[in-house]
Amino acid sequence: IQNEVDEMQIQNDVACAGDTTLSHFLSTTKWWASRNDTSVVWDGHCTFSQRESFAKTSKLAAMSVSDQPLTSPPRKRQASLRKIGKIGKRELVHSWNAVFKTRRQGKKSARRTAPTNIDVHTLACSSSMSQDASQDALPHPSKTYDGPTDVLRRFMDAVCDVAYKADLKRLGEEGLVQDFGEFRHHMTEKAAFNKANRAAGKEMVEWPMCISLSTMTDAQRQEMSREKLTAKLLSSVQSFTYTVCSEAAEARRLLRKAKLSTGRQAVLSKFGISDASLCNEFLLLPEPDKSIDDGFQPFDGRIGKLRYLALSLMLASSPLSKELVQLSMDFPETRDDPFDFDQHERDLIQRAHVAYPILNSHILTHITSGLVAVTGRARAEEGEHSIDSVVTDCRNFVQLGLIARVSQVLLSELAGFIDDSLLMETTKQMFGSDSLWSSFCATLIEILMIEIQMSNHGKTTSPQKSTEDPSLSVIHAIQKCEVEAMLFLSDIAVICQILTPNFFSGGVALDQQGRRLTLEDYLAAFQIDVSSLFNSSLSRQLVRSWQSKAMKQETNQLEFARHYHAKTWPVAALPQPDLPPGCLPLFGSSGVDIDMSLPHLRYLPKSYTDLYSKVSRMNDTDQTAVCLVTGRVLNAAGEGLCHKHAVRLCGGAGIFFLVQECQSLIIHGSKAAYVHSPYVDFYGETPHYRGRPLNLDADRLEILRGLWSGHLIRERVAAERASTRQVIIEGYY
Fold first, then answer.
1. In the chain, is it the N or the C terminus that has fewer CB atoms within a 10 Å radius of its CB?
2. Which pLDDT score is estimated for 95?
3. Furthest-apart CA pair in the chain: how many Å?
4. Buried b / exposed e across 191-217, counting CB within 10 Å, b at 16+?
């Protein structure tokens, strides 16, 4: 009944689609291809396929299994694989030339590798090419081509390899096998299908051969190669997202520290920022101006240089933009797949998700993937899409991301009450609230609870309920959503400006009177009206679909750890603990989780004598180190514990204070180097003999903090080891 009511409301919404921006977008956009583009069909895993090219195959789908010959399973597998159009190096080279307009080299490369009738728009639905036609148009798999595409592919391989090695060191092989994480579906499938071989000590079967019931054909290999390339592209987008957030966080930190206008301007120039709010939450990047430096202002500074990486990701995403949007935005899928006759084989072979359901994932990465796909297609099809239409699509994706992020926080914070009638009554009382944000969150809670109650219908088990007052829990959850929404919008604003330099061309009013920006300021910058986000039944249907996918465990899918991440990266800066006078906080006290039962410090004492006394009571070894990021007290007597701690909790780059030696230690990988001590005497020196009282110097500690937050540890370790005679043995500390 609910679905019929929604369908009637959707038809009414389409008839008056211009009432709200999000309603019009959801009802008309081709990015929701499974609903609004009848020419393609989603295969349920990684690819859109053309309906017209496979009419004969769809007729086979209507045949019963008994009507088909006994030798049909292998032939059916080949038929199902014909829906996949090959995406090889020649298409990416053509897309590269279309994006970067390398005229001279592009023409030469096009004559050698690409036919003149290839259209980049066709590449977005690559499966529209039939298998027979693609045999002549595409190169032989064994034939290689040089060019920028090789660089791009190797770059994505390097990004994924570095991330995998870091996780392997941090979690260990056993821990990583249990959960490889998102965008590593090929590793998950390989581990799952080789589980018995691992236990028996037999030889491992490589992916993708391990998931095939028979010898794989060239078409099957092309399909698997395309899946793996898509996963690596999504992983590269994730790295891009993390890098942008890291640089933006460092810029905000330095802007908060800069007290004089000259120092503030130096920070803006260093990062390529044109303006920022006085409290530095909202960053504005420069727009191109041809009269100044030939319009290259957007590429200046540390943040501006990330545009080169963004352009490369746009290039790689343009041939498969629809697939990226579907995987990242997790739009509801249609069930009229003409290849459902292959369902019995799908049940035999369980596959892993190429991308997790959006509510179980890092939403900022998913929204960035959608934005990269939109802008990449627009650059590849230059002249076919106006700037306003691209910005409008990006704004709507941001609105969907805001809804998803708030839903994720609500599901996490209200997990104990999510099926409680008292919570429903409390939520209904908030619909008449004067606060638009509270009303928006209350509407979202109601939608989520309806979906959960429908999924739990007929089940005897009930979720564990909290003993807290439901009204207090709802208020606390809404306040948490407000904080997380501002964090999400502040970071996505920087990403939007990198991908589209004139995203805020209309201007954003930044308050320079010392007032902290509120959520209303962020919503106004993106032109988001939260009161109209759920005017359309399509948005309600989308939220229910997200929640259903986040909870549903499919029989033909390998299971993964399903969590709602209320606290995700980048984390909010938590209020600093009450510090004694003269004491200073640690570098990572706002977001690094450690075991509080182990010896640790919450802050750095003002006096070196007090620090020595505290550490001596926690660790009785001759050599003791204090991690300046987490506060963990470690044994530094040559057992390598500091290196292991840096790998596990600090991404392989650590910074420590050696208490007995009164020196700081920086670590990257297995290499380490000594740097200055933050504790000095009255003259600003660290004497080599005892007797003078030493106190914490804020400026010297800030230099160490800059090494950590500015990602300069690796560079400093290499420089110190190259310029000193006192070289530390690798892995010693």
1. N
2. 53
3. 95
4. bbbbeeeeeeeeeeeebbebbbeeebe
Average pLDDT over residues 462-491: 78
Question: 639, 648 in Cβ contact below 8 A?
Answer: no
679 vs 18, 68, 642, 696, CA distance in Å?
64, 81, 21, 4
Pair type for strands 633-635 and 40-42: unpaired
Residues comprising the chain, all counted:
733
Q: Which residues contact 285 (CB under 8 A, 6 or more apart)?
A: 272, 273, 274, 298, 303, 304, 494, 497, 498, 501
The token duo for 484 is 């997380």
Helix axes 72-81, 218-257, angle to 10 degrees: 40
Give yes or no for a contact between 411 and 448, defined as CB atoms under 8 angstroms apart. Answer: yes
Per-residue tokens: 517: 């920006």
Query: Which helix (DSSP H) or strand (DSSP E) does residue 666 occupy?
Result: strand 663-668
**CA–CA distance, 611 with 657 (Å, rounded to integer):** 11
Could you tell me the two tokens for 492?
């996505």
Query: Please, which residues have CB within 8 angstroms of residue 257's CB and are 6 or more apart in sequence?
Result: 702
Q: Are 633 and 599 in contact (CB under 8 A)?
A: yes
Which residue reads 């035999």 in tokens?
A: 348
Q: Are 676 and 596 in contact (CB under 8 A)?
A: no
How is residue 115 written in tokens? 């036919």
| Least confident span in 223-232, 354-363, 428-437, 488-497 | 428-437
Asked if pLDDT for residue 15 goes beyond 80, the answer is: no
Q: Are 508 and 525 in contact (CB under 8 A)?
A: yes
Q: Which two structure tokens, joined as six digits, stand for 706? A: 């800059």
**Spatial distance between the Cα atoms of 175 and 179, rounded to a whole number of angstroms:** 7
Instruction: List pLDDT tens digits, range 226-265.
Output: 889 899 999 999 999 999 998 998 898 888 888 666 788 8
Distance separating alpha carbons of residues 289 and 285, to the nearest angstrom: 12
3-state secondary structure of 592: coil
Distance CA(305)–CA(308), nearest Å, equals 6
Angstrom distances, CA of residue 11 to CA of 332, 377, 399, 534, 605: 17, 29, 22, 15, 66
In contact, 235 and 242? CB cutoff 8 Å:
no
Look up tokens 């914070």; give the residue: 413
Q: Are the C-beta atoms of 346 and 556 separated by less than 8 Å?
A: yes
Note whether 651 and 239 are within 8 A (CB). Answer: no
The strand pairing partners of 633, in sequence order, are 626
Q: In this structure, what token pair is assigned to residue 630?
A: 């987490």
Q: What's the number of CA atoms in the CB half-sphere (13 Å) around residue 18?
A: 0
Query: Phi and psi dihedrals of 607, rounded to 5?
Result: -95, 135
Amino acid identity of residue 292, one-letter, is I
With beta carbons less than 8 A apart as the criterion, state whether 35 and 331 touch: yes
Contact 351, 227 (CB under 8 A): no
236-266 in b/e burial notation, b at 16+ Cβ within 10 A? bbbbbbbebbbbbbbbbbbbeebeeeeebee
Cα separation, 288 vs 305, in Å, equals: 14
